[in-house]
Amino acid sequence: MARAEKRFVCDACGAARPRWAGRCDACGAWNSIVEEVSRAAPPRGLGTAKGRRIEFLPLDGPGAVLARRECGIGEIDRVVGGGFVPGSSVLLAGDPGIGKSTLLLQAASALAVRGTRVAYVSGEEGIEQIRMRAARTGLAGAPVGLAAAIDVRDILTTLEDDAPPDMVVVDSIQTMYLDTLDSAPGTVAQVRGAAQELIRLAKRTGTVLVLVGHVTKEGQIAGPRVLEHMVDCVLYFEGERGHQFRIVRAIKNRFGPTDEIGVFEMTDRGLVEIPNPSSLFVDPERGPVPGAAVFAGVEGSRPVLVEIQALVAPGPAGSPRRTVVGWDAGRLAMVLAVLEARAGLRLSVCDVYLNVAGGLRITEPAADLAVAAALASSAAGRALDQGAVIFGEIGLAGEVRPVSQGGARLKEAAKLGFSHALAPVPDTARGEAEGPGIAVTRLTHVRDLVALFPASLETP
Ligand code: TYD
Ligand code: MG
To answer: For 144-157, how does the pLDDT look when each residue is reduced to its tens digit (9 = 90+)?
Structure first.
């Protein structure tokens, strides 16, 4: 028999160490190390006892096509991969106050109205609070089973004694308490233990389990990253402070793509889907402004138009400022260097501010060319053609490279009334078609782009 061993675990990142310390050497957090008694470690070697034989099966067979439960809120169904998979576990992570409880109450109600049996267990709020939210969002009539509880044993007993529901929402995993562990709710051991028990129940009964998880300021799921490994699907719910837009992003999904997003707006009656996000991120009313470029992006399977805004201003001698919101600062540095080295645009002496409008975050390299256009336009003090969208990746030699889904980008732009596109030469190997209903100027080098703004070479 192995004996129970003491070890010390960081509450912030889950790293284990043999001794207590004031600061975690894995993540640098202070005062986050707590003692954990680990259960009997596995014995050394297996000995001679034989195990049972396991069975090998063909890849094809029952279960190959998943029966999914759609809640009917299109933005949610798409992000989870086309509906919730029975027996799977989903983690919805996000900052406090971003709207996780609201989103899940809406999804739960929508499923319940469609005849799915849904339980909503809250460890954070009382029944009255949740009822108030339901009344406010017009969901009070939905047949959702509501409970305020934190004891995992009670929750499991109840769910198993009654026929288990088709979906259980647990809000939040940080409030759940497992009585077999000494530590307090919210510690790594508790979060891991509680999640393990709930996930096991979901697998056993075919219930869809949805866990809410809080995120720390650094953007990590509070306490344990371990949760991300345990669940089948990790969704991040994000939004910029001061903006009404909320985006659900799939970070991990064992049953679907991970690059999908769902876009919502927080209103006084709950979250409202935005099926055409381009209308949010581009303002068609505003007149021409230097430094603004509309990027034809793709989020998941869906084209999204986003306005990229740049402000280039002569800075004080010394170290110029670089401020980026919604894009990668390293990528901006690269685009600035390429513009300077390959197209003679002297920006290294200027302060540069870059902003992705609407609180969206872009991760695609296809945005390079739009960023370069916004920078060149601002530096020249000349606005881009208002009816134009732009996309393309930029290489270090200054070449403009083709990107995926060029056709879809052009189609979306045409659909939203854009008449002109600046784009790379399409990759014919991918069989990409010319965009219908939109004139395309093909660019091969950043020089071609900078040449569109004649005054730009005269700026400081
Ligand atoms: P909530 O779902 O409680 O956030 P979380 O569970 O992520 O902590 O939502 C909190 C915020 O949303 C709160 O500040 C108020 C706002 N809100 C609205 O603007 N409209 C609404 O209809 C609801 C229910 C909430
Ligand atoms: Mg909440």
So the answer is: 999 999 999 999 99
316 by Cβ neighbours in 10 Å (0-12 / 13-18 / 19+) ranks as: exposed
Q: Is 321 in the pocket of ligand 1 (CB under 6 A)?
A: no
- pLDDT tens per residue across span 390-421: 999 999 999 999 998 888 888 888 877 788 99
Distances (CA, A) of 102 to 92, 341, 356, 392: 12, 50, 26, 38
Q: Which two tokens stand for residue 396?
A: 């270090």
| Distance, CA of 325 to chain centre | 16
End-to-end Cα separation, the chain, in angstroms: 75
Residue 215 CA, ligand 2 centroid: distance in Å: 12
Residue-wise DSSP of 395-438: -TTSBEE--TTHHHHHHHHHHTT--EEEEEPP-GGGTPPPPTTS
120 alpha carbon to ligand 2 midpoint, in Å? 12
Minimal-distance CA residue to ligand 1 atom 11 = 97
Give the residue whose CA is nearest to atom 18 of ligand 1: 268
SS3 of 424, please? Answer: strand
How far apart, in Å, are the Cα atoms of 220 and each of 215, 225, 226, 429? 5, 7, 11, 40
> Angle, to 10 degrees, between the axis of helix 152-161 and the axis of helix 188-205?
10
Nearest atom of ligand 1 to the alpha carbon of 105: 2
Locate the ligand 1 atom nearest the alpha carbon of residue 94 and give its number. Answer: 7
Atom of ligand 1 nearest to the CA of 124: 6
In angstroms, what is the span from residue 265 Cα to ligand 2's centroid?
17
Q: Radius of gyration (Cα) for the chain, nearest Å? A: 26
Largest CA distance in the chain: 82
CB distance 84 to 233 below 8 Å: no
Distance 98 CA to ligand 1 centre (A): 6
Q: How confident is the model at residue 217 (pLDDT cuts 50, 70, 90)?
A: low
pTM of the model: 0.74
The span from the CA of 263 to the CA of 274, in Å, is: 5
Do residues 197 and 159 lie in contact, with contact meaning Cβ atoms separated by under 8 Å?
no
Query: Residue 55 has which token pair?
Result: 């069975």
pLDDT per position as a tens digit, 285-333: 777 889 999 999 988 777 888 899 999 998 777 788 999 999 999 999 9
Q: How far is the CA of 27 from the centre of ligand 2 (A)?
A: 27
3-class SS of residue 359 = helix
Is the CB–ligand 1 distance for residue 270 below 6 Å? yes
- From the alpha carbon of 103, which atom of ligand 1 is closest? 2
Nearest CA owner, ligand 1 atom 13: 97
